[in-house]
């Protein structure tokens, strides 16, 4: 290998051609202090262990037998939601292209009193549910970094209060209510396909499909910051016309129309190379696996967690407890997800 | 401000431009690069006393940034992060404007496989040795050599296509 000054000069040109806006050091410090406080609190409650996996009973799933029901309509027909200027109610808002100017209006409405400006970007349009960045002010008056573009159903004060009181509900109705409060899209009539929750992480993943079958919400409820927190990774997908750039779809096998989906996140759980001890972490994921999948298993550092799948749909919210690992901590491992059928036969590796 | 915070702030003020530029070259997206650096520095803050005591916090931060920048686009399990952060796409009629202003070298860099791109950036932008690059990426020196050579070849071809700057 030898040096190449010309390539080196080109790389420096590219890096320096891109303007560097001011870096918000104080925001990092503020976030770090908050993280330290959270870690101390978690440490104090170290006796709490275990993960609760919930396979929701059919009796709790709304509209199980109403596949042909019309898309949910809120606003004028539902006193729990108010109309939002420029957006239709319910699922229809998901199919609207939102201009940057309209996005700014919607973000102002969504976060009243904050007066934060969206970063200009090359995007000509946004979608309801997407999360463009705010310009960070220095010193920051607020620490919010993203605007979750709201839908056309502004929840009533009563609904917001109910979500705040019970940020991690156990009932399907409560979960869908909180997802509606978070997104401003009335999903209260949607059908839950999979759900999982972790008391340790204080998080839940709810996967629900609209009555029309055209849309999906992967709703991330996180009780640490309330239902309106920006810590969530909630997203909407268009099931009938998925877009590989926007929707977490996996390419369908040749000759098959069944598009599998997979999205996941992983944090913490790093291992110390000298002590071989691995800290607390979390691995959350959801997806649509082959239809015959009965169980999805996630493994990391010799530990595993299983979650049920129904009609291919699954959700996993795994709180990784501190443990000792005999592998090489210098070679980081990541969660690996595998699908099994009802007889325990391995079907495929989903991701990781 | 505590002594811990004071030292951390000084480090961030000094190191952030270099970390952000490296993250930008590897991830190919300015906003994503800033998010990656913010996340890495947040993690660094949590372990700051220990890292600062051991020494060379910049190498530690760079390793986190590089791995997040090149890993995030490769692993499907990270997709939800990307989806949350990536802005919506331009409409199709934006194509001509984008084409007119595009940079052949930048396009070629973005088109490299993630590990190739990371190898090229670490070797030829950060001026790391083969050994240091292998250590940062957690791979063998042979892999660094082969990946960097392929990436370099692609970039050289792009540079020959690049028009001379207008006078």
Automatic annotation (TrEMBL), chain A:
Superkingdom assignment: Bacteria
Entry keywords, A to Z: Membrane, Transmembrane, Transmembrane helix
InterPro entries in the cross-refs: TAT_signal
UniProt entry tagged with the keyword Membrane: yes
Membrane-spanning segments: 41-61
Sequence segments annotated as region (Disordered): 117-142
This protein's name: Uncharacterized protein
Organism: Kribbella albertanoniae
Automatic annotation (TrEMBL), chain B:
CDD domains documented for this protein: Sigma70_r4
Domain RNA polymerase sigma-70 region per the UniProt entry, residue ranges: 12-78
Pfam entry (one): Sigma70_r4_2
InterPro entries: RNA_pol_sigma-70-like, RNA_pol_sigma-70_dom, RNA_pol_sigma-E_actinobac, RNA_pol_sigma70_r2, RNA_pol_sigma70_r4_t2, RNA_pol_sigma_r2, RNA_pol_sigma_r3/r4-like, WH-like_DNA-bd_sf
Keywords: DNA-binding, Sigma factor, Transcription, Transcription regulation
Domain RNA polymerase sigma factor 70 region 4 type per the UniProt entry, residue ranges: 103-154
Molecular function in Gene Ontology: DNA binding; sigma factor activity
Signal sequence residues: none
GO aspect biological process, one term: DNA-templated transcription initiation
Entry similarity comment: Belongs to the sigma-70 factor family. ECF subfamily.
Name under which the protein is recorded: SigE family RNA polymerase sigma factor
Source species of the chain: Kribbella albertanoniae
